[in-house]
Amino acid sequence: MGRRTIREAYSDKARQFVKGMNALNIPFDHALPGRPSTNSLAERNNQFVIATTATCLLEAGLPACFWKFAIRCVCHLLNVEPGEDDVSAWCKLHGSEFKGEKIPFGALVYFKPSGARTNEQAHKFDPKGIPGIFAGYEIAPGVNWRRQYMAWVLSDMTKQNYSFNTKTIIEKLWYPHLTEKIEVHYPLTFPCKEIYDRR
């Protein structure tokens, strides 16, 4: 995974997994078909992540169509939180704790957009940071973080439909801005929550 060697993989015996693991020469173990108890730990973890993500979306005031951003943020934050042994999964993998800000999904932030995107600041006297909604962390292959946060411009969020049964995210929000400079607004605020609750 990334630059690390995968010592073993574990999954069900789906043909695509078996074929992929064989092609990559990765030792492969599997759950016993028809026996959910052999996969109960994974199922419990999945249920916990799904429930946590749903709660996170509700707290942020964002409809379920934002789940793919929310679940990545939730999983990352769970990985950087210390476990029962006071050491995070991140630390066990990388040898040191996560150095970035721990920001809840959907929180109000101020960020400086990268030069690669259209500049939202038209005037040289405009503030250097613009208000936005935190969209998560850009995690590179091998579970590496290169100090890049993701955020949506707050003014773009006003064009989104916030009904709980909304099926799609508007096109402008498909690709959040990447930024290395981000400031969290304290006390924590979730700007989309009010309009979501009204809808």
Walk me through the structure.
The protein is an alpha+beta fold and 199 residues long. The protein has one domain. Helix content is 30%, strand content 19%. It has 6 helices and 7 strands, in the order E-H-E-H-H-H-E-E-E-H-E-E-H. The strands form 2 sheets. A 5-stranded antiparallel sheet has the order 6-5-4-3-7. Strands 1-2 form a two-stranded parallel sheet. Helix 2 packs across helix 3. The radius of gyration is 20 Å and the shape is globular. The model has no long low-confidence stretch (mean pLDDT 86).
For this entry, give a set of tags.
19% strand, 7 strands, 6 helices, 199 residues, single chain, two-stranded parallel ribbon
Give the helix/strand layout.
Blueprint: E1 9-11, H1 15-23, E2 28-30, H2 40-60, H3 67-80, H4 89-94, E3 108-111, E4 130-140, E5 144-153, H5 154-157, E6 177-179, E7 182-184, H6 193-198
Parallel strand pairs: 1-2
Antiparallel strand pairs: 3-4, 3-7, 4-5, 5-6
